[in-house]
Write a structure and sequence with these properties.
With about 180 residues, this protein is α+β, with helices and mostly antiparallel strands. About 35% of the residues lie in helices and about 30% in strands. Strand 2 and strand 3 form a beta hairpin. InterPro entries: DUF1697.
Length: about 180
């Protein structure tokens, strides 16, 4: 048995309805996963499962989610080992924890797509690719940056963003 982290790209089902974490934990149990627990209300799930490849878990979770909630949502799954590796490689640990964000990618981000983001950056912002994931230090509120709106699935690939506080919180949950 292994520990896994699942990150939902969105928990918004309709403008009036979001998935609550209790329902996400229930879905994990219905799919046969053990000890599901969540961190904050933004679609962060930690659970135990038989040794499976993360991609198999992504497919299983995405299909289960769509069946239960009627909407497809991209879900990125990492093993506990790969999550700890991600957490240990933050290139911007000197940045503000709520302004440093990692876009956790299903497949490694294309360096050409990262280059295309650079003209959108303002002074003080930094980006780096580590282990195929895109780290960004927004050096200010992410919502006030042109860079944030460019980080779409269509432009960058399937992935989802988490700030450094959440990355550390999930790491603490699996230690």
């Amino acid at each position: 048995m292994s520990t896994f982290i699942a990150l939902l790209h969105s928990i918004v089902l309709t403008p009036e309805r979001r998935v609550i974490m209790e329902d996400l934990r229930a879905l994990a149990e219905e799919l046969g996963y053990r000890e599901p627990r969540t961190l904050v209300s933004t679609g962060n799930l930690v659970f135990e499962a038989d040794d499976m490849r993360p991609h198999e878990l992504e497919v299983h979770l995405e299909e289960g989610f769509e069946e239960k909630f009627g909407k497809h949502v991209d879900i990125i799954v990492r093993s506990d080992c790969t999550w700890m590796a991600l957490a240990s490689t933050n290139p911007f640990k000197d940045g503000n924890a709520d302004q440093v964000i990692v876009r956790v990618m299903r497949l490694p981000v294309d360096p050409k797509k990262v280059e295309a983001l650079k003209p959108l950056m303002r002074e003080g912002q930094r980006i780096a690719v580590v282990g195929g994931d895109l780290w960004i230090d927004f050096a200010g509120k992410p919502s006030q940056s042109k860079l944030l709106s460019a980080l779409t699935t269509k432009r960058i690939g399937v992935g989802t963003m988490r700030n450094w506080n959440t990355v550390r919180g999930l790491a603490e949950m699996i230690m």
